[in-house]
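Project standup — Tuesday

K.O.: blocked on the structure for the chain from last sprint. Re-posting the sequence here as requested.
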Amino acid sequence: MKQFQIILFKGHPIIKDGDNIILIDTGAPSTINASDSLTFCEENYNCSTNYMGLTVSKLSDLLGTEITTLLGGDILSEYQIMFDYKNEVVEFNKQEIAFDGSETAISNFMGIPVIELFIDSRKLNFFLDTGAKLSYLSKSITSNYESVGTDEDFYPGVGNFVTECFEISTSFGDNNFLVKYGNLPPLLQMTLMMGGTDGIIGFDFFNNFKVVIDLKNNRLKYT
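H.V.: unblocked you, prediction finished:
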């Protein structure tokens, strides 16, 4: 078991482990590192330095802060991970994490966790993405709501983009919370459809719930 303090840089969870500056990204299937080997939580991993043309140097430029590692689903699935944004703590454990809360089954697509949320009593599937400062829905859903302005975001392979944003009440279990949703560029919206999902849920989910993600067993605990 190892705990880290989270730095929430513009909504992105970043931790430091030795000389490594690590972005935790459940929305990425693969880890990208500055070198082809990574020591994390005293374990050694072989890594790619380039994923479809993406490097940590390019990611650092997009983020606006330096990272050495994007920690993706291939390594994240080796651990149970507790995210506690309120106390700015994350825990990685290869054993069961003692946690007093509710539990629900989740699914995954290419190692990316998928959860069910409700909007206006409609059940929708969302990628659960710690790397997303904004959450996203298709225009067919957000067109029913008033815009609250625009925000800028980025996506690897697309770069920076500006989107209209909408604050929409969202339900998870017995809990309602407000989420700021944007609209993805058309190419990225198509990838959602390929994954059988309706949207991406990011920072607002983790800022409202303390959660344990167990990717290997497709479980999520929350309180």
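K.O.: great, moving the ticket to review. The radius of gyration is 17 Å. Residues 186-194 form the longest helix (9 residues).
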